[in-house]
Amino acid sequence: MVFVLFAQTALAQNKTVETAGDVLLYAMPAAALGSTIIIGDGKGTWQFAKGFILNQAVTIGLKYAINKPRPYDNGDRSFPSGHTSTTFQSAAFVQRRYGWKYGIPAYLLAGFTGYSRIDAQMHDGWDVLAGAIIGIGSSYLFTTPYEKEHMELTFNSWDGNYLLGFNYKF
User: Is the peptide bond between 69 and the residue preceding it cis, with omega within 30 degrees of 0?
Assistant: First the structure.
């Protein structure tokens, strides 16, 4: 009787972890993209979109090309982990665009998502590692750091000469 109760509790905990990973699959890209829209970072919106499209194309392409069986006979197309590639692409975008202050929590959530996929017995460590690499790589190809100040006024003087300059960063 005690074993049955413990097994049900353990199963419920695994289901909670799996569900949390499923929620992060949608929440992380929505938060990353939504933040660019809220702060008016149109360039960031476009960079996120390009990284997201590349990530999905590579991940889905590899899933169909390799067609690796999932652990414990839970289906096919295990390699790479799509949950992991999507959340790591979002985390890498946030970190690269807005800095480590926001990137560290995003990477922790992405790492938890990878863990949730192993815990749910849908992937092994190689699937999750490949997903993380693909996600980070696809974001780093397109994402540049965010610069609030695109215009700069400069002034310089030497030997009685004066120079007034204007810089604009595209």
Answer: no
Q: CA-CA distance, 152 to 53, in Å (whole number)?
A: 34
Tokens coding 20: 């949390």
Tell me how far apart the alpha carbons of residues 89 and 137 are, in angstroms, rounded to a whole number: 8
Q: What is the CA radius of gyration of the chain?
A: 22
Any alpha helices (H) in 99-159, and if so which ranges?
100-119, 125-142
Q: Which residues contact 81 (CB under 8 A, 6 or more apart)?
A: 114, 117, 122, 123, 127, 128, 130, 131
- pTM of the prediction? 0.79
Helical segments of 67-99, H only: 82-98
> 74: pLDDT confidence band, cut at 50, 70 and 90?
confident
Report the candidate in 93, 85, 24 with the shortest Cα–Cα distance to residue 56.
Answer: 85
| 61: number of Cβ within 10 Å | 10
Q: What is the pLDDT of residues 120-147, one digit of tens each?
A: 999 999 999 999 999 999 999 999 998 7
Calpha distance 69→66 (Å, rounded): 9
Contact 84, 29 (CB under 8 A): no
Paired tokens of 14: 């695994």
Whether the CB-CB separation of 120 and 112 falls below 8 Å is answered with no
Report residue 108 as tokens: 């922790």
